[in-house]
Design a protein that fits this description.
about 40% helix, five-stranded parallel beta sheet
Length: about 260
């Protein structure tokens, strides 16, 4: 009888096996994280989005994309693959608001902008590891290659500042794999994704101020880890007003270290 049922609906033996696996795994955590780009789904304005990997699973690898959603706290981060004449103004505005941010930098940035990096450190900002070359790290399957990308940036940072780099890592382009997260963890790193960002990295197609505010104001939420690019002319232009508006909504700012406390 059951054989006739499967035949009637065109279900093969392989299909039956897949269905059994789905049923057996229903309600259980996936054993392996997907490889791909970090993504978000905003479902309710003013509330935290859903990531394409659950926060509880990420925490097993010392990774996070969101802070405490019961607190009106923002964790402000900037990514920079190069300098575009905006960082000095951004640092001025952060100083005005007494906000400490995290800057995730690559090797090229440290080599070409030592004074800006030293200023970040002197003014209390955290400089995080965005890898030396900004490659797709999910394609580096062995620890030796992964370690080289991470530790070569650490060494450059220490040569430049005389300090040890704090161990916070952001995958280039947000591309990650379970193996990457494990290797970063083995090297003592916390992996920091984000819960709010917008398309601000295209130099030849910068958003208007209105377009930026339309994304960054309605979507702000408790525990937000905000990703902005310090290469963006728009970000440099709107940052003072943006921070003021977030502050007027009752938000305060904290360092990404608190994501893992």
């Amino acid at each position: 009888m059951m054989r006739g049922f499967w035949k009637k609906y065109g279900i093969t033996i392989v299909g039956m096996a897949v269905i059994v696996c789905i049923v057996l795994s229903y309600g259980k955590e996936a054993a392996v994280l997907p490889t791909g780009s970090w993504g978000l789904s905003f479902r309710t304005e003013g509330e935290a989005p859903v990531g394409n990997t659950d926060q509880a699973i990420l925490s097993k690898y010392d990774a996070a994309y969101l802070g405490d959603t019961s607190e009106k706290t923002i964790y402000l981060t900037f990514d920079a693959g190069y300098e575009n004449g905006c960082t000095e103004k951004i640092l001025d505005i952060l100083k005005k608001h007494n906000i400490k941010a995290a800057f995730f930098l690559v090797g090229n940035y440290l080599e070409q902008n030592p004074d800006l990096v030293k200023r970040m450190v002197a003014e209390g900002h955290l400089v995080g590891n965005h890898t030396y070359h900004h490659w797709d790290m999910s394609k580096l399957s062995d620890m030796e290659s992964f370690r080289a990308e991470i530790e070569s940036l650490e060494q450059l940072y220490t040569q430049l500042t005389g300090e040890q780099m704090q161990k916070f890592y952001r995958p280039p382009q947000g591309i990650y794999s379970e193996e990457n997260l494990k290797m970063a963890q083995e090297l003592g790193y916390k992996t920091v994704f984000w819960s709010l960002a917008y398309v601000d990295w295209l130099n030849d197609d910068q958003p208007t101020s209105e377009e930026a505010f339309s994304k960054l104001i309605p979507r702000i939420h408790n525990g937000a880890v905000v990703l902005l690019h310090s290469t963006s002319q728009t970000n440099a232009m709107i940052l003072d007003e943006l921070l003021t508006r977030w502050e007027s909504l009752g938000y305060t700012f904290a360092g990404i270290e608190q994501l893992f406390s």
